[in-house]
Design a protein that fits this description.
By secondary structure, the protein is mainly alpha-helical. The protein is 65% helix and 10% strand. The protein contains 10 helices and 3 strands, in the order ααααααααββαβα. It has a 3-stranded mixed β-sheet. The longest helix is centred in the first third of the chain and has 30 residues. The protein starts with 6 loop residues before the first helix and ends in a 17-residue tail after the last helix.
Length: 325
């Protein structure tokens, strides 16, 4: 996985979650707090999620094969999608079940100092992990808002870790609030309510992650800034006079496919056109290094054809052409 994949943030989160998971299960064993049990499962699920992200990053580095000629870059999207499913099913649904059971059958907490101490420790550890994820993300985020960064990031690992760490911190605060109210009022039902809120939080985060990674799996185009750079690099004003139309597709976070129909002079020879295409590809790769797969089709520009606009039947996802056509 490249540096932009946020490996440092993933490893930091994995180490923090493993330590926190152990401490939460110990606190549950001594106190019987359902919030501690839900939070322990949450941290264990998060640890598995980070392991999946590392596995996905490793698998994505495999070389292209005849069966998969564009490589395995999308493995990272697949594993990020699995993370959202695990967070929903293991973390969120389990917390909802435990909270419901605790509300039905409340009991006072034993050895209250265990859950309180562990929650304070967990908040500190998660804050360190969250700080690392923010630092790694800032290197890529630029001037984008956090919302835009999470929605439009092509590398899925950092948004996943950011949302997981944020959810973990908010969940810990909810758990601390549930335990605190249970101690103050003597009513164990507050512990169950805190657990229910943790479950709802995890499910909301899982849904956001699923929607974003689904979009990446379907295939997203390059960003507007990259598209502008590619179009500018294609045109040399001599042999290549315009870009008639172009499509881009992320084969992975750091690999972009570019397919374009470019306008050339009507009296250019085949040798001149071929030379111009090779030069255009070199300019694109220099301008946008992740544009690794480039297909260019030369054509003669026509104002009449351009005025018709794009043909919807020629677009991917358009009407299916049958053998009768």
């Amino acid at each position: 996985m490249s540096a932009s994949g946020g490996t440092k943030a993933i490893v930091a989160a994995l180490g923090a979650n493993l330590a926190i998971a152990v401490s939460k299960f110990v606190a549950f064993a001594f106190s019987g707090s359902s919030s501690m049990l839900a939070e322990g499962v949450h941290s264990l699920a998060d640890s598995g999620n980070q392991a999946l992200l590392l596995v996905g990053g490793k698998k994505a580095q495999r070389e292209a094969t005849p069966q998969h000629p564009f490589g395995y870059g999308r493995e990272r999207y697949i594993y990020a999608f699995l993370v959202s499913i695990i967070l929903f099913s293991v973390g969120g649904m389990f917390a909802l079940y435990e909270g419901y059971q605790k509300i039905l059958h409340p009991h006072e907490l034993d050895n209250w100092y265990w859950p309180v101490g562990v929650l304070v420790f967990a908040i500190i550890a998660e804050s360190i992990s969250f700080r690392t994820a923010i630092k790694e993300s800032n290197a890529l985020r630029g001037k984008k808002s956090w919302k835009d960064f999470i929605r439009h990031a092509k590398a899925p690992e950092l948004p996943v870790v950011l949302l997981e760490d944020l959810g973990a911190l908010v969940g810990l605060i909810l758990a601390l609030g549930g335990v605190g109210l249970a101690l103050l009022t003597g009513e164990g039902v507050w512990d169950g309510i805190g657990t229910l809120l943790i479950g709802i939080l995890l499910i909301l985060i899982a849904v956001v992650l699923a929607l974003e990674t689904k979009s990446l799996l379907l295939g997203e185009a390059a960003g507007a800034e990259q598209v502008a750079k590619i179009e500018k690099a294609l045109v040399d004003g001599d042999t290549v006079t315009a870009v008639i139309h172009m499509r881009t597709l992320h084969l992975g976070p750091e690999e972009l496919l570019v397919a374009a129909k470019i306008a050339v002079q009507h009296d250019d020879t085949a040798t001149e056109v071929a030379t111009a295409i090779n030069a255009a590809e070199a300019r694109v790769r220099e301008s946008v290094p992740i544009a690794r797969v480039i297909y260019l089709e030369p054509d003669i520009y026509s104002d009449v054809e351009a005025a018709k606009g794009p043909d919807p039947e020629a677009s991917p996802g358009g009407p299916v052409q049958t053998a009768d056509h």
